[in-house]
Amino acid sequence: MNGKGVVRQLVFWLALLLLMLLATVLVIEVATPRIFGKWWPSINLVGNPDHRMTPAMYDDVNSDGIRSALEPDAFREEDFNVIVLGDSFVYGMLLGRQDTIPFRLEQLAHAAGRNDVRVVNFGWISASPYLSLRLLRDIGSRYKPDLVIEVIDMTDFWDDTFYRRAVERRGFFALAHYMPATSLLLGKWGREVIRSDAYSQTLWGVPWQRYFAMERPLADTRPYLDAVVGNLDATHRYVREQLGVPYAVFVMPRSVQYSERETPEDHSDEYSRLGPYSLEPFRYFAEVAPQRPYPLIPLLEDFRQSTVFPLTFEHDPHLSSAGNREAARMLWQHLQRQGLLPAPAATGTTSR
C-alpha cells in the first residue's frame, strides 16, 4: 500500500472514530434527561447551574420554589421576616420541612414570645453563596426581609468556583453547556477514577476533591476560600444597599471536623476524620472574620461543646432532626448576642 492509501485509511478510521464519539454523545444527551425525568433540571449542574427547586419536583415548596408553606404575599411588613440562605444543611436534607434549621429558629422565636418573627428557608440542595446571591436578587425582596442569614458549608469552596464558571461559560464550560450530560459523566469519572487536579482543573477550574479545603494546607486552598468570601461580601453589599437590612454569616462544620463518634457508618474517602488539615477552613475564617463589615461566625466550638448526641445521621453527615434543633439554638443565641433578632418578650422564655 502506497503512502496515499495509508493516509486515506487513517483519515477513514479517524472520521469513523469521530462519528462514533458524536453518536455516543448524542445518545447520552438524549437519554439522560429521559432517565431522570422531572429531576433532570436539579441534576444538570452544567447546563442549569442554578438548579433551583420547582413545585413540579417538590411537593413542599411554594410557587417560588422556596421550602415554605407560605407564598411571598403572606409575609407582611409589620412582621420581622428572616431569610436563611444556604445549601442542603439549611434545606434540611433527608428531613421534613418542620425539622429544618429555619423552622426550628422560628419556633424558638415564638417560644420566646415573639410571634411576629417569620423565618423562611431559602436553602436548596447543592447550593452555594454565589447561587444564593443570584436567588436573593431575583426574589428576596418579595419576602420583605428584616434580616438575611447565610449558612455556609465545607462544599461551598468547590461549588462556588464551579457554578460561577458554569454561569459565565468560562473555559471548558463554553463547550460543556451544549453537552451537559456527557460533561457531568466526564467529571464524575474524573473524580472517582482519575482523581487528578490537572484533569479537574481543565474541566471545572477546581481541585478534584470536593472537600479539598479540609484535606490540604491553607496555603494551597486560599484562593478558593477567598472567592467564597468575595461572594459573601457581594451578598452583604446587596443586602445592605438594596434590601436595607442586616446580614450575618455562619460557618457550619462537618462532623469529621469535631467528632470521632458522629456519623459512624460514613465511610467516604473524600475526607479524613480529624485529619491534619481538617480545621484549615476555620483557621482561615478566624483570620478574615475581623475584617468583615458583617458578623462571620464559625460554629465549630458550638458543635464541639454541644451535649446533644448524635447530631447527624449514622450513614450521612447531614444533621438529624436533633442536630437541626441544636443548630437552630446556636444561631438563636448568636443572633441574640449580636442584637440581630428581636429580644424575647418580657413574659417569654427561650427554649432549647
- The oligomeric state of the chains shown is single chain
Overall mean confidence score, pLDDT = 94
Percent range of helical residues: 40-55%
Major β-sheet, in short? 5 strands, parallel
Q: Which second-level CATH architecture of the largest domain applies?
A: 3-Layer(aba) Sandwich
- Report the total helices: 13
Terminal residue distance: 85 Å
Cα gyration radius (Å): 23 Å
Q: How are strands sequenced across the largest beta sheet?
A: 2-1-3-4-5
CATH superfamily of the largest domain: SGNH hydrolase
Please write the CATH class name of the largest domain: Alpha Beta
Assign the structural class, choosing from mainly alpha, mainly beta, alpha/beta, alpha+beta, or little secondary structure. alpha/beta
SSE arrangement, N to C: HHEHHEHEHHHHHEHEHH
Low-confidence stretches: 348-352
CATH topology of the largest domain: Rossmann fold
Which of globular, elongated, flat, extended, rod-shaped describes the shape?
A: globular
Strand percentage lies at: 5-15%
Description:
The structure is a single chain. The chain is globular, with a radius of gyration of 23 Å. The chain has two domains: 3-38; 44-338, Rossmann fold, CATH 3.40.50. Helix 11 links the parallel strand 4 and strand 5 (296-298). The longest helix is centred in the first third of the chain and has 34 residues, at 3-36. By secondary structure, it is α/β, with parallel strands linked by helices. Helix 5 (129-139) packs parallel to helix 10 (218-243), helix 6 (156-168) crosses helix 10 (218-243) and helix 8 packs antiparallel against helix 9 (197-204). 46% of the residues lie in helices and 7% in strands. It has a five-stranded parallel sheet, sandwiched between helices.
